[in-house]
Amino acid sequence: MAAADYFPAALRAFPSRDKIAGLSHRALRSRSGCPVVRLVGFVAMKAAMVAVQPTEHPMREHDDYEPHHESSPSDHVLNELQLYGYRPFADEPDQRPLPDGNEVAGAVADIFDALTATLADTRLEPDLDDLLWSTVNVFHRAAERIVRELDANEQGQKRSQREQDGSEVKSVELERLIAEGKTLIERRTAFELMRDQAAEHFERHTGSSWRPRSGSMVSHRNLTAAMIDSRDFLAAKKRAETEVMLPLGPKIVFSGGDALDHKLIWAKLDQVHAKHPDMVLLHGGSPKGAELIAAKWADNRKVPQIAFKPDWTKHAKAAPFKRNDQMLAVMPIGVIVFRGSGIQDNLADKARKLGIPVYRLGSGGA
């Protein structure tokens, strides 16, 4: 059915758009009494009026208005760099340089000088030594944390070595782990340097040597060379750990009780040091008595030392005797025993059975 059949003849005879544009609303309404005609005519009239009027740009009256735009990836990167600077992703090595050594040393010195100058001659001066000790411990704990990350990186490299199948994906993953391991070694060395600097300032301000409450105070900065591939890296890391925990040189074991005869102890250790300039001192790490005096002697004479502390949690009452076995397992060339308790007697008896010379301070040679 044709569309014309739905509309009356008046609608089909409705004037064109050009004619409607020149008619007023009242004139248009008087042309036809049909509601449909009136509605269509009104719409047509409005369209004609818009068509004959000039079009204006919507931004012309509001030049200060800017519509919302989506940020592009490049804009996001630039904003992040401006706000936060360069930050490596979690799965890529950090290529930023390490801080300058002289600046680090100056910053550490400023920390100790500021604390001392601020708290001295105040009510908080009794707490100053503990605060300075904790300051050194901050760098020590940071180095230990990185060591744990380095151990995890080593396991990751070993796992990646086993998974190598010639694909580029596995090869790139192994290269990333190697680069991450190198970065961790550099970070560990930097924190150990900061800890050593802080320990020197601690001794200067307090007159006492800094000692960690757990672990050993060792430094790796001169032991690990640049690595070429993953196997060389792991071999060098293992070699560095062994050399740090057990430095080269003749080992001398020292054990004592609560004796405080520092002149006798220092004299005997100086005698042994003169005979073995590259000696390494092994002791029980006691926080008081003869072993503390021996530890301070090693600090003063720049002699490498290793503290074998008893593991009370693991061995309970047998911890000191297990510790004696650990020291003798290193095969020292001599044992110096200061009068003390049955722990020192146990060490001397076991050393003699192994053929290791024993010297008892205050009672002549064994």
Can you walk through the features of this model?
With 366 residues, the protein is mainly α. It has 3 domains: 3-52, no CATH class; 96-245; 247-366, Rossmann fold, CATH 3.40.50. The chain is 57% helix and 6% strand. The protein has a 5-stranded parallel beta sheet, sandwiched between helices. β1, α10 and β2 form a beta-alpha-beta unit. The longest helix has 39 residues, at 168-206. The radius of gyration is 42 Å and the shape is extended.
Quick structural gist:
This protein has 366 residues and is mainly α. The protein has helices spanning 9-12, 17-21, 25-31, 35-52, 73-84, 101-119, 128-162, 168-206, 230-245, 262-275, 289-301, 312-315, 319-329, 342-353; strands at residues 251-255, 280-283, 305-307, 334-338, 358-361.
Q: What is the topology?
A:
Layout: H1 9-12, H2 17-21, H3 25-31, H4 35-52, H5 73-84, H6 101-119, H7 128-162, H8 168-206, H9 230-245, E1 251-255, H10 262-275, E2 280-283, H11 289-301, E3 305-307, H12 312-315, H13 319-329, E4 334-338, H14 342-353, E5 358-361
Parallel strand pairs: 1-2, 1-4, 2-3, 4-5
Tags for this entry?
mainly alpha, 6% strand, 366 residues, Rossmann fold, 57% helix, 14 helices, extended, 5-stranded parallel sheet
